[in-house]
Amino acid sequence: MTTKANGPLAGVRVLDLTEFIFGPYATQTLADLGAEVIKIENPGGDRQRHSGKHAAHPEMGSVFMALNRNKQSLALDLKQESDRDRLRELIPTAQVFIHNVRADAIERLGFEYEAVRKLNPAIVYVHCVGYGSNGPYAGRQAFDDLVQGASGAADLLPRVDGNPQMRLMPSFLADKVSSLHALYATLAALFHRERSGEGQFVEVPMFESFTHFLLIEHLYGKTFEPPQGRIGHTPALAADRRPLRTKDGHIVIQPVSREASAKFLALGGIADAYESERFLNAPKGSRVTVYYDMLKEAAATRTTDEWMALGQKHGIPIMRANTLDEVLEDPHLKAVEFFQLRNHPSEGPYRAMRPPVRFEKTPATIRNDPPLIGQDDG
Questions:
Q1: Is there a contact between 50 and 61 (Cβ–Cβ < 8 Å)?
Q2: Tens digits of per-residue pLDDT, 270-300?
Q3: 311: in domain
Q4: Do 297 and 349 have their domain in common?
Q5: For the whole prediction, is pTM greater than 0.90?
């Protein structure tokens, strides 16, 4: 089913030459917000198309399905002059040109910023790169694992669990976070364009974007010069910062005060916890361990739903901790219809996540299902 775009970006045309995750996540969000996003992909398709499970067509893998709704697909072989001409014809009709092709490769194709600007001086040209063009890593290949490694993300888990082996976060965080940087950069450049009529070149470096995101809290003592302590945010790296087991599941608790902690412990059968002999007589430096042990014991006395109700009643920040499977059944996400079953023309029923941000006057929508390769060539 196709519905009319009425989001805040309705009327904006985006030429999208991105693939994988860094880029497509940003452009899908632009499309959710109402922009007309034309996905320019080679005849073999975005290399992300084969990632994950598929239903009918192998080029419609689950990760591609999650990143490319609301887009049109135009298959062009940009090594062919005739197809380059077709793209050049589209450039004057667009407000945004975005890609994650390396600088030397896009220049060989003839679509570097200066070439595109000649065809459309007001274009917002967004280049999603691995590393900023003014540094020694410029032009190197960049993928999520590489940027997680370079940013220090692989050093976080060893600081928490005592295993000294560096490990990557089990999510493509650098790709997705950097896409959100590309999103706000595009929106800001469009805002400037609306006020001034000027287009501009925008560079979104993945390494710098993700490092900026990661070190907000983790610069910590190294924020100052000379340093006022070590790098790494102590509360965030606490080994016991983890969900607590209940009678039938898990919860997360983050008390905002000692009073809230004491109330939680009392509700779990541990009265006057901070005045107890167990706490007061703990060996020097081990009270934190005793505290977390008491939290675990208290949590285990009630069910998850009971704790959710008690947290609401007593003003204690408590939330259920879902497994990945349980997220699909979360009562809040069900109530807001976060997961929506749709019927893809070729793939059949599939689950989409609705745009999370709400606009009163210009709602974001799912209007079109992810496209087959070149389905809009005509």
A1: yes
A2: 999 999 999 999 998 899 999 999 999 999 9
A3: yes
A4: no
A5: yes
